[in-house]
Specification:
Length: about 475
């Protein structure tokens, strides 16, 4: 089948490459000429494992290419996916300007009946509003239908999550759109992936509701971490016991700095705002509490830092991590970068190292200094703060780090290292879970040891991304 994917960011470029991989002829569309040129060379402008190889295969096979022309897109296919970004607005709702711009650019060129399939994260009513825009702008009028097919991608696993998803949601208004979506995804459904056909409003809710629930789990275990600190209990073992309950499951039950990225923060706020507008007061209150717990984690980290450092002006701080989670170069809404920037604002000299995201962090936070390695970042540091749980950081010897640092003071905000090993090497270790040696330390199940390998299949303890 011929189809287009409008918007070639993390979602759109991955979706385009994967649709070509399963045999469709795909034209990606983006207004950025630099991005389309890079994609046509077989490379993405962001890091996603396996994507570059897939782009190259699709382009070489002649099933995939990219353009900036909406007229070309309308002539190429009658099926158009919308994969543009819907970032959060300060007031909490979604910014739909890119969706509207895509419709305004595409619809006037539609000379044949078309199916427009939204994949972006939105709240109910968005598809209906876009349907009205299409009817007003497209020569085909009402024959151009808008359906919704939300994505459930995790950054670092986006290719896998597109080709082997847990489920496919098809929100349609009639049988014609259902037939098209079934044909598009037949290679996946034939392999056993369930396809759920529903109304458009349910499909619009599916993504933000899923992310709000996952965020709730993150905030819940972080609230339990506070209780564990007060009780002298071990939150990691507690999380293990909770995760063994099949009604709860282990994913997203790792206490730490809280969730970030382009997905969970905006979806919690977006759904909360929608709940407030629709007078769903209890739902709005629940989501507000989830968000407050998450924001409180950053405040708690700053309090730990202040507690061990005292005066911050002139202090030298090393920050390990910048990405909002390990396995990606995405720094959007990164709690760790917020903490690094706060340190800078307090007058500290801040040096950041991230194995993958330092380049994007430099663009976002050029006021910070950056180091090529974890050890060079800690050189002459008065305090080391770990904000992203990269596996590389667990491999650093605390004795080696002590040779570089001015003081052996560690604030671990994300269970990033083995606390017992670092304490044995003479470090004063503080964390959001425990700031003194308590239950479980030294047993292999302490708060700062790595979480047990709960995951099975594509379940992950890291937040998803859209």
């Amino acid at each position: 089948m011929k189809l287009t994917v409008i918007g070639c960011g993390h979602l759109g470029a991955t979706h385009a490459a994967c649709m070509a991989e399963i045999g469709h002829d795909v034209l990606g569309v983006d207004i950025d000429e630099g991005k389309t040129a890079l994609l046509n060379s077989g490379k993405a402008w962001f890091h996603e494992p396996g994507l570059d190889d897939m782009l190259a295969r699709g382009i070489t096979a002649g099933r995939l290419r990219f353009t900036t022309s909406f007229a070309e897109a309308a002539a190429f296919a009658s099926v158009h996916f919308l994969g543009v970004a819907t970032p959060g607005l300060p007031a909490g709702s979604y910014d739909l300007s890119q969706l509207r711009a895509a419709i305004r650019s595409l619809a006037p060129h539609l000379g044949q009946p078309a199916l427009i399939i939204g994949k972006s994260t939105v709240t109910p009513g968005t598809a209906a509003a876009l349907q009205n825009m299409v009817a007003a702008l497209a020569p085909a009028g009402p024959a151009a239908e808008v359906a919704w097919n939300p994505e459930f991608l995790r950054e670092g696993c986006a290719v896998q999550d597109t080709l082997r998803p847990d489920r496919i949601i098809a929100g349609v208004t009639g049988p014609a759109a259902e037939t098209v979506l079934r044909e598009i995804y037949q290679p996946l459904t034939d392999a056993g992936v369930p396809l759920i056909v529903t109304g458009v409003a349910t499909a619009e809710l599916a993504k933000c509701a899923a992310n709000a629930f996952l965020a709730t789990k993150v905030s819940f275990i972080n609230a339990m971490a506070d209780i564990c600190r007060a009780a002298g209990a071990d939150v990691t073992t507690l999380a293990t016991t909770l995760g063994m309950d099949p009604r709860i499951g282990p994913a997203f039950l790792r206490a730490g700095i809280g969730y970030g990225g382009a997905c969970l923060p905006k979806d919690v706020c977006g759904l909360q705002t929608f709940a407030e507008k629709t007078q769903a007061a209890s739902a709005a209150g629940l989501l507000a509490a989830v968000n407050e717990v998450n924001q409180g984690r950053i405040r708690q980290v700053t309090e730990l830092i202040t507690g061990v450092c005292g005066s911050l002006p002139g202090a030298r701080a090393a920050v390990w991590g910048a990405a909002f989670k390990p396995g990606t170069d995405d720094v959007r809404d990164s709690p760790g970068l917020k903490i690094a920037s706060w340190l800078h604002q307090q007058g500290a000299e801040v040096t950041v190292h991230d194995p993958m995201a330092s380049g994007n962090a430099l663009i976002t936070c050029p006021h910070l200094s950056y180091a090529d390695t974890a050890l060079t970042a800690v050189k002459d540091a008065d305090v080391l703060i770990i904000v992203t749980a990269w596996p590389e950081f667990r491999e650093v010897s605390p004795a080696d780090a002590a040779k570089y640092a001015a003081s052996r003071v560690l604030v671990d905000a994300c269970q990033g290292v083995d606390a017992a090993a670092w304490r044995d090497a003479g470090w004063d270790v503080r964390s959001l879970c425990q700031d003194t040696q308590r239950e479980g330390e030294g047993t292999g199940f302490g708060c700062l040891t790595s979480s047990p390998p709960f995951t099975a299949g594509r379940t992950s303890t890291t937040p998803c991304s859209g």
